Amino acid sequence: MEAQGVPKSLCTLTMHNGPVMVVRWASNGKWLASGSDDTLVMIWDLDPNGGGKVWGSDDINIEGWKALRRLTGHESDVVDCAWAPDDRYLASVGLDSRIFIWCGYTLECVRRLDGHQGFVKGVCWDPVGEFLATQSDDKSVKIWRSTDWTLQATVTKPFETSPGSAFYNRLSWSPDASYLCASNAMNNNGAVFVAAVIERDTWNSNMSLVGHENTVE
């Protein structure tokens, strides 16, 4: 921060070859993951000897963040990614309808999850790391068990009358992991835009957050 409290740019990361769709810090603050429509997930690490000029610009980087690893496997835009609470895994999703699980230590792919029939646009770990939730344009949320990557549940009811597509389908768990809130849902036969609140274990959605006048993303 500047002395006057004005935010200061520390570094510009320039290795992607397309628009960057998502960035996520690991909870330990060591690594940063980014996903782009160039199909790549990039892992960035702080280089204590870095810094210098920004490529293609006259700007100067105060900190030096280097591309530690390029994670390949997606065949289309990477729309979202999420670190497990203990950073043991990184999950990434995209417009190839695939979910990739990467080891948070070696950064190798440990599993690919298939099951969605449309673009996957949201992914979120529950706070205790037991379940991974994904949401797709196929009008479903899928719950995956992280111990063996089996499909625990598929939730469809809140999304049956939702718009066919949205830019994103972001999800969020409550801090105590009791509820999962999902976007792009509808009430009253498609008349009311809502965020659906899904109860853990039963995976029922009997509550909605109402107030938006267009698609919740």
UniProtKB/TrEMBL annotation:
Segments forming domain CAF1B/HIR1 beta-propeller: 9-157
Record localization: Nucleus
Gene Ontology terms for molecular function: nucleosome binding
Superkingdom of the source species: Eukaryota
GO BP annotations, alphabetical order: chromatin remodeling; DNA-templated transcription
InterPro entries, per database record: Beta-prop_CAF1B_HIR1, HIR1-like, WD40/YVTN_repeat-like_dom_sf, WD40_repeat_CS, WD40_repeat_dom_sf, WD40_rpt
Record-linked SUPFAM superfamilies: WD40 repeat-like (SSF50978)
Record's protein name: Related to histone transcription regulator HIP1
Biological classification of the source: Eukaryota, Fungi, Dikarya, Basidiomycota, Agaricomycotina
